[in-house]
Specification:
About 40% of the residues lie in helices and about 20% in strands. The strands form 2 sheets. The chain has a 3-stranded antiparallel beta sheet. The longest helix is centred in the middle third of the chain and has 13 residues. The radius of gyration is 18 Å and the shape is globular.
């Protein structure tokens, strides 16, 4: 049984319905970081048109830690947190390029532990820690940055997936 089915079974035990639209949102977000408008556009292609229902389902999925909301390049994005080896809803590092909007996730528990072990947090239990690193490559050039081979974010993603 995959991670998604385990989550669905847990929710069913709590008498929570897993609707077709909720499943569709989960499928749409698999491996992507999308805005509400992008999610809605994809749902419309699948026959779901009500934007209010999309917002309600997004809220539900956030509440149940199935997705998380992150702010990247000044916009809210949504990210699937189940069936994802690089993070949970409560521990997240995203790196994004301000030129081409590439977004990747990295998982380095040492970074989270270093932050949690700072003296300032000794009497404070951190429940959620998200880090968003935004920047541009040192070699920044619009045309150069459009190729995956030249993009720092893509190189970091490949390196991260090899580890």
């Amino acid at each position: 049984m995959d991670s998604k089915e385990k989550v669905f079974n847990e929710l069913r035990k709590q008498n929570v319905r897993i609707t077709k639209q909720r499943k569709a949102i989960i499928d749409i977000l698999d491996g992507k970081h999308l805005t509400i408008q992008e999610i809605h556009a994809e749902l419309k292609r699948r026959g779901y048109h009500n934007l209010g229902t999309v917002y309600n389902n997004i809220d539900f999925l956030i509440e149940h830690k199935i997705i998380t909301q992150i702010f990247i390049n000044g916009k809210k994005h949504y990210d699937l947190t189940i069936d994802e080896r690089s993070h949970t809803a409560d521990s997240h590092i995203h790196v994004t390029c301000k030129v081409n909007n590439n977004i990747i996730e990295i998982n380095d528990s040492k970074i989270f532990e270093d932050i949690k072990n700072q003296e300032i947090f000794k009497n404070f239990e951190i429940k959620k820690l998200q880090i968003v690193v935004e920047g541009v490559c040192k070699h920044y050039d619009t045309e150069h940055c459009k190729t995956d081979q030249a993009c720092f974010i893509q190189q970091l993603h490949r390196k991260n997936n090899l580890n």
